[in-house]
Specification:
It contains 18 helices and twelve strands. It is an alpha/beta fold. The protein has three domains: 73 residues; 194 residues, Rossmann fold, CATH 3.40.50; 54 residues, Winged helix-like DNA-binding domain superfamily/Winged helix DNA-binding domain (Arc Repressor Mutant, subunit A, Orthogonal Bundle), CATH 1.10.10.10. A nine-stranded mixed sheet has the order 1-2-6-5-4-3-7-8-9, sandwiched between helices. It has a three-stranded antiparallel sheet with strand order 10-12-11. Helix 8 packs parallel to helix 9. It is globular.
Length: 363
């Protein structure tokens, strides 16, 4: 099983994907690359002897089978650079992740229509509202929203995607043993449980330390055909992603904001340098030359994945609308739990409230 050697490589914190790919390309086989000798490494042009010696020392401490079993035990899926299902757009960047770990249903995300959304962690209320309005204009399409699962604009991007029946991919800057920020725990779980996928290049035990966030940004833009910057100061991670977008030959777009806001200074710098201005969702479609699939939009082929409790409610609304008292009786849910699920299902656009406390299916 070759996959375990990719995992073993990625479990070594002191090396990166660039180093792993260099050895893989040289040896042409990941197992041979991992088990190579110091003499073989010294024959690679440009590879420093000290780097080779350090790798051998670290490699000899890795239990390949145990490292792989840890991934299986935690229920983490993964793709490697030699996997045919590895995202093509990401593989084409200058330094693609050697291993892409993920939870959720990456296969249900349309990787041919991916839009990255980035912006300030301390986003203004107007920037949040503008982004929600623009994403709502993409509702019920096959477009997939990619962001970094951070606070602020990232959180708005993911939650707006879910509320508008869009798939979303969250790219994190740590392994799956950590959730950062902790207040996004529910959002992580929602994405993993039917609304898309959470992905990372990091082995589960790797912590969300500072230098990993800008590294993560190349994956956010690398997965995407274009990047939408919702709000950014002159010294922000969003501008790093914007520059990576241009380096990767992808489309860069910006939402204009209040000129007196320091978090829009980066936006206007990008706009002056040629970024596309976005004031409505159609601007994104025009910039990326995308056409919304009318059949998809009309038939809403991608009904959101339902939780078990939502499924019970949905089934009981299949024939006719029902009131809260009727739903309490037929579902067996508690009053509080029922109201919580009804609210969530309304936000997803699955059901709507009619005639007071009565509910009916939307699709």
């Amino acid at each position: 099983m070759k996959e375990k050697y990719w995992i073993a490589f990625s479990s070594i914190e002191q090396i990166d994907s660039r180093f792993i790919k260099r050895l893989y390309d040289y040896f042409g086989d990941i197992e041979k690359a991992f088990n190579c000798s110091l003499t073989e490494l010294e024959n690679i042009d440009g590879l420093r002897v000290q780097k080779a010696q350090e790798f051998i020392k670290l490699r000899d401490k890795v239990d390949v089978d145990k490292t792989f079993a840890n991934i299986e035990t935690k229920g983490i899926n993964f793709l490697t650079l030699e996997d045919e299902n590895y995202p093509a757009m990401l593989k084409n960047i200058e330094n693609p992740p050697a291993v892409l770990y993920y939870k959720g249903k990456l296969s249900e995300c349309n990787l041919n229509k991916t839009l990255a959304v980035v912006g300030s962690r301390k986003a203004s209320s107007s920037a949040r509202d503008n982004l929600r309005n623009i994403i709502s204009g993409l509702a019920n399409t096959d477009i997939c929203i990619v962001s970094g699962l951070a606070s602020g604009i990232d959180t708005v991007a993911h939650t707006s995607a879910i509320e508008n029946n869009l798939k979303t991919i969250g790219v994190i800057a740590s392994g799956f043993d950590y959730i950062y920020p902790t207040q996004n725990k529910t959002l992580y779980e929602n994405i993993e449980n039917g609304y898309g996928a959470v992905v990372t290049e990091y082995y589960p035990s790797f912590e969300p330390i500072k230098f990993r966030f800008p590294q993560r940004n190349r994956i956010v833009s690398g997965l995407s055909y274009g990047t939408l910057v919702a709000e950014a100061s002159l010294k922000s991670g969003a501008l790093i992603t914007a520059n990576l977008t241009l380096e990767q030959g992808r489309e860069l777009m910006c939402i204009p904001g209040e000129i007196s806001n320091v978090n829009t200074q980066g936006i206007y710098k990008l706009l002056k340098n040629g970024a596309t201005m976005v004031t409505e969702s159609q601007d994104i479609l025009d910039a990326l030359n995308w056409e919304i699939q009318k059949e998809y939009e009309q038939k809403q082929l991608a009904l959101p994945t339902l939780t078990p409790e939502e499924d019970i409610i949905y089934d009981n609304l299949s024939v006719e609308e029902k009131g809260v008292d009727e739903l309490l009786s037929v579902t067996g849910l508690s009053f509080e739990n029922l109201l919580m699920n009804l609210t969530t299902m309304e936000l997803k656009g699955i059901i709507k409230q009619v005639d007071g406390d009565r509910y009916k299916k939307c699709q």
